Amino acid sequence: MPTLLHLDTSVFPGEASASRAVTATFRQEWEAQHPNGTVIYRDLAAEPLPHLDGLAAQAGFVPTESHTPEQQAAFALRDTLAGELERADAVLIGAPMYNFTIPSTLKAWLDHVIIMGRTSGAEQTTTSGTPAIVVASRGGGYGPGTPRESYEFVTTYLEKALKDALNLDVEFVVPELTMARSNPAMADLVELSDASKAKAHEDAASKAKELAARFAA
Description:
By secondary structure, the protein is an alpha/beta fold. The protein has helices at about 20-35, 55-60, 70-85, 105-115, 155-165, 190-215, and strands at about 5-10, 40-45, 90-95, 130-135, 170-175.
């Protein structure tokens, strides 16, 4: 049975988080299709990873059989996280926009799992082709043609980090204008916000079914 790696990063719990709500929809549909499958779950907001330090970074460029005891200890977490990614048949990531970009907790995860010559590189890697669904929620509107289009550094960054660095097959689900119901200045955008939210849940469920059918074939 397939394995799903599910990462949530929102600082808000449950339904208070647009990204968590949509990843929950994906996961619910995924588990309905794969009741005996495996889910590796990390809540990076509740249990943040340490930032990559110099010793752990250096160890990534040294063959494991040549690691010093200090490098071996420093690399252990990177090896664990990369192993989780390598075991995954599909990846689900909740990535809300904070100050125009991804949460620092997600950046820390990426810094650990991007390992040159293993998960990353010009040649075939251990993660090449793995499908990844990213729920990139945002409080305002940053789509093409909007005044703040140039401020959008979530999908633009993650496409490079996940697709170009890790060679994942990346698709985005984007609920936007999520602050409309709580921000009086956005009152006239509530209808658009609700429509975006509904479409995001629909897209998440659809993509989960699509991937389920792929693995069942």
